[in-house]
TrEMBL record:
<dbReference type="GO" id="GO:0004620">
    <property type="term" value="F:phospholipase activity"/>
</dbReference>
<comment type="function">
    <text>Phosphatidylserine (PS) lipase that mediates the hydrolysis of phosphatidylserine to generate lysophosphatidylserine (LPS). LPS constitutes a class of signaling lipids that regulates immunological and neurological processes. Has no activity towards diacylglycerol, triacylglycerol or lysophosphatidylserine lipase. Also has monoacylglycerol lipase activity, with preference for 1-(9Z,12Z-octadecadienoyl)-glycerol (1-LG) and 2-glyceryl-15-deoxy-Delta(12,14)-prostaglandin J2 (15d-PGJ(2)-G).</text>
</comment>
<dbReference type="GO" id="GO:0052651">
    <property type="term" value="P:monoacylglycerol catabolic process"/>
</dbReference>
<dbReference type="InterPro" id="IPR029058">
    <property type="entry name" value="AB_hydrolase_fold"/>
</dbReference>
<dbReference type="InterPro" id="IPR000073">
    <property type="entry name" value="AB_hydrolase_1"/>
</dbReference>
<feature type="region of interest" description="Disordered">
    <location>
        <begin position="24"/>
        <end position="43"/>
    </location>
</feature>
<dbReference type="Pfam" id="PF22990">
    <property type="entry name" value="ABHD16_N"/>
</dbReference>
<feature type="transmembrane region" description="Helical">
    <location>
        <begin position="60"/>
        <end position="84"/>
    </location>
</feature>
<comment type="similarity">
    <text>Belongs to the AB hydrolase superfamily. ABHD16 family.</text>
</comment>
<feature type="domain" description="AB hydrolase-1">
    <location>
        <begin position="281"/>
        <end position="407"/>
    </location>
</feature>
<dbReference type="GO" id="GO:0012505">
    <property type="term" value="C:endomembrane system"/>
</dbReference>
<dbReference type="GO" id="GO:0047372">
    <property type="term" value="F:monoacylglycerol lipase activity"/>
</dbReference>
<keyword id="KW-0812">Transmembrane</keyword>
<feature type="compositionally biased region" description="Low complexity">
    <location>
        <begin position="26"/>
        <end position="43"/>
    </location>
</feature>
<feature type="transmembrane region" description="Helical">
    <location>
        <begin position="96"/>
        <end position="116"/>
    </location>
</feature>
<dbReference type="GO" id="GO:0006660">
    <property type="term" value="P:phosphatidylserine catabolic process"/>
</dbReference>
<dbReference type="GO" id="GO:1905344">
    <property type="term" value="P:prostaglandin catabolic process"/>
</dbReference>
Length: 558
C-alpha cells in the first residue's frame, strides 16, 4: 500500500539512461563526477514507456495544467469581464465553486489512476524505490543509480547547499538568506529630502512599477520562465539533456541557493581527457530564453573545456523567478559549487555568457575577482536603453523607474569592478541589442559596454582623441573595413605592448591606469585602437546564431 501511495505522489519519469559507469575510468578528483576518454554513443530509444493507464492519465493532467496556466495569465481579463457581466455575485459564485470542486475531485481520481498505472509498471517501481532510498541516504551508490533516470526535477534531492562551504559558516560577510550583495542604483532625483510627504507622493509610482515588473516586465525580459513556452520546448530540452548525459557524460545536480531557490545544473568533466583545455572550467550563463540543455554550453564543449551549465531561476528544473537578486543568488551558489564540490580553483574558472547572461557573469567577476577570465557574447552595458526601445515613448519615465528599481541589469558597472582579462564578442547583424535597426552597428549596446570598460581602465588613453578613433573603428561592420581603419592609423603593436608592460611593471596591475598621460595624441590613438581590438572581436551573425567553437577564445593578457 505504501508503494502504491508513492506511485500516486511520485514524480513523472521521462527517460531511463543506460548504465554508463561501468564504461568509465575512476575519477582522480574525489567527490566529483567521473570522466571518460571515449563517451558512449547516444541512445535515443530509452524514453520511459508508461502503461496505457498512466499514459492517458498523464495526458489528461498535462492538459489540465496547460488550461490552468492559460487561466492564470488571463485571469485579470476574465475577472474584469465577469464583473462587468454581473457574474461575481454570491448566487453565481456558489454554483461555480461546486463545479470547480467536482473538477478537482475528478482530477484527483485521474491522479490515482495514474498511480495505479505506475504501480503495475516494474520500471517505475524500481525507479521510485531508488528515489526513496536516495532521499533517505545520499550515498555515492544511490546517487549513481538515480543519475540513470530523468524525471521531474522537483523531486531530485539537493546535492549542494549554499552554506555547505565551511568558510560561509564562519564568515559574517557572506550572503544571508536575504541574498547576496548587489550594486544599487543612484536615486533618480539626487539632493531631494526624503520626507514622509515625499514618500507618500512616490507611493503610486512605486506601486505601478512593482506591478509592471512582476507581471508584464519580468515575462518580457525572461520569456523562458513562461510555463507555456517551457511546455512547448519540453521534447527539445529532454533530447538536449540526453545528449549531455549520454554523449558527454554529464552529471546533473541540484543546488540550493541562499533565497531557497533550487538551481538545476549540468557538469561535464574533461579533466581526465587528453584535452589540455579540460583543466579549465567554463561556467555558462544563458540568455533570456536559453537553457543549458540547448544553449551556449555547446560552444566550450566543442572547444574541449570542462563545462558547468545552469538554468535561470524559473527555467526548466530551477525554481523561483528570474529577478536580478535571484539571478545573483543562483550564480553565487553555482560558483561555490564549482570551487568547493567540483574542486576547481578560481584561477581555473572562466565565466562565459550570452546575451542577458552577461548580468550574472559580470556579477560573478565583480564578487569573485580571482576567476581566470570573462567572455561576453552579444551582451550589453545597461538594460534601460533596450527597454525604452520596445516600449512607447510616453512610458519613458515609468520604464526607467521600473528597470532601475526592479530589473536593474547594470552589466557595465559590474564589469568595471573586475580587474582580470575580458573579451567581448559583438554580433555585426545583431537585431536584439541594437537600439535602432540591425544594420546600424553603432547602435549595438556592445559598443557602449566596450567604451565604458576602456574608459574606466584607461581614462587617459580614452580621452577625446582615443574615444573618437575607437568610435570610427567600431563603425566597421566587416573584417575588411576593420583592418582598413586599423592600418590607416599605423598601429605599432610591439610599441603598444612595451608601453603597457612598462607601466604595469612600474605601477602595478590594478586599474584604472594613468598610462598615456604624458603622451602625444597620435600615441594615445594608437593605444586606444590596440586596446579596443584586443578587448572586442566581431562575429558576422545575428543575435541567436550559435557561436562556433573556433570563435571561443581566451581574452588577451598583457
Amino acid at each position: 500500500m505504501a508503494k502504491l501511495l508513492s506511485c500516486v505522489l511520485g514524480p513523472r519519469l521521462y527517460k531511463i539512461y543506460r548504465e554508463r559507469d561501468s564504461e568509465r575510468a575512476p575519477s582522480s578528483v574525489p567527490g566529483t563526477p567521473t570522466s571518460v576518454s571515449n563517451p558512449p554513443s547516444s541512445s535515443w530509444d530509452t524514453y520511459y514507456q508508461p502503461r496505457a493507464l498512466e499514459k492517458h492519465a498523464d495526458s489528461i493532467l498535462a492538459l489540465a495544467s496547460v488550461f490552468w496556466s492559460i487561466s492564470y495569465y488571463s485571469s485579470p481579463f476574465a475577472f474584469f469581464y465577469l464583473y462587468r457581466k454581473g457574474y461575481l455575485s454570491l448566487s453565481k459564485v456558489v454554483p461555480f465553486s461546486h463545479y470547480a470542486g467536482t473538477l478537482l475531485l475528478l482530477l484527483a481520481g485521474v491522479a490515482c489512476l495514474r498511480g495505479i498505472g505506475r504501480w503495475t509498471n516494474p520500471q517505475y517501481r524500481q525507479f521510485i524505490s531508488i528515489l526513496e532510498a536516495t532521499h533517505r541516504n545520499q550515498s555515492a551508490e544511490n546517487k549513481r543509480q538515480l543519475a540513470n533516470y530523468n524525471f521531474d526535477f522537483r523531486s531530485w534531492p539537493v546535492d549542494f547547499h549554499w552554506e555547505e562551504p565551511s568558510s560561509r559558516k564562519e564568515s559574517r560577510g557572506g550572503p544571508s538568506r536575504r541574498g547576496v550583495a548587489l550594486l544599487r542604483p543612484e536615486p533618480l532625483h539626487r539632493g531631494t529630502a526624503d520626507t514622509f510627504l515625499s514618500r507618500v507622493k512616490k507611493l503610486p509610482c512605486q506601486i505601478t512599477s512593482y506591478l509592471v515588473a512582476h507581471t508584464l516586465g519580468r515575462r518580457m525580459l525572461y520569456p523562458g520562465s513562461v510555463y507555456l513556452l517551457q511546455k512547448a520546448l519540453m521534447p527539445v530540452l529532454l533530447q538536449g539533456q540526453a545528449r549531455l548525459v549520454e554523449e558527454c557524460n554529464g552529471r546533473r545536480a541540484k543546488l540550493l541557493a541562499c533565497d531557497g531557490n533550487e538551481i538545476d545544473t549540468m557538469f561535464v568533466d574533461r579533466r581526465g581527457t587528453a584535452e589540455p583545455q579540460g583543466q579549465k572550467l567554463v561556467i555558462c550563463c544563458e540568455g533570456n530564453a536559453g537553457f543549458y540543455e540547448v544553449g551556449c554550453v555547446s560552444t566550450p564543449l566543442e572547444a574541449g573545456y570542462s563545462v558547468l551549465g545552469w538554468n535561470h531561476p524559473g527555467f526548466a528544473g530551477s525554481t523561483g523567478v528570474p529577478f536580478p537578486q535571484n539571478e545573483a543568488n543562483a550564480m553565487d551558489v553555482v560558483v561555490q559549487f564549482a570551487i568547493h564540490r567540483l574542486g576547481f580553483q578560481p584561477q581555473d574558472i572562466i565565466v562565459y555568457a550570452w546575451s542577458i547572461g552577461g548580468f550574472t557573469a559580470t556579477w560573478a567577476a565583480m564578487c569573485y575577482p580571482d576567476i581566470s577570465a570573462v567572455v561576453l557574447d552579444a551582451s550589453f552595458d545597461d538594460l534601460v536603453p533596450l527597454a525604452l526601445k520596445v516600449m512607447p515613448d510616453s512610458w519613458r519615465a515609468l520604464v526607467t523607474r521600473t528597470v532601475r528599481q526592479h530589473l536593474n541589469l547594470n552589466n557595465a558597472e559590474q564589469l568595471c569592478r573586475y580587474q582580470g582579462p575580458v573579451l567581448l564578442i559583438r554580433r555585426t547583424k545583431d537585431e536584439i541589442i541594437t537600439t535602432t535597426v540591425p544594420e546600424d552597428i553603432m547602435s549595438n549596446r556592445g559598443n557602449d559596454l566596450l567604451l565604458k570598460l576602456l574608459q574606466f581602465r584607461y581614462p587617459r588613453v580614452m580621452a577625446e582623441e582615443g574615444l573618437r578613433v575607437v568610435r570610427q573603428w567600431l563603425e566597421a561592420s566587416s573584417q575588411l573595413e576593420e583592418a582598413s581603419i586599423y592600418s590607416r592609423w599605423e598601429v605599432e603593436e610591439d610599441w603598444c605592448v612595451s608601453v603597457l608592460r612598462s607601466y604595469q611593471a612600474e605601477h602595478g596591475p590594478d586599474f584604472p591606469w594613468s598610462v598615456g598621460e604624458d603622451m602625444k595624441a597620435e600615441g594615445r590613438q594608437q593605444l586606444a585602437l590596440f586596446l579596443a581590438r584586443k578587448h572586442l572581436h566581431n562575429f558576422e551573425a545575428t543575435h541567436c546564431t550559435p557561436l562556433p567553437a573556433q570563435h571561443f577564445q581566451m581574452p588577451w593578457r598583457l
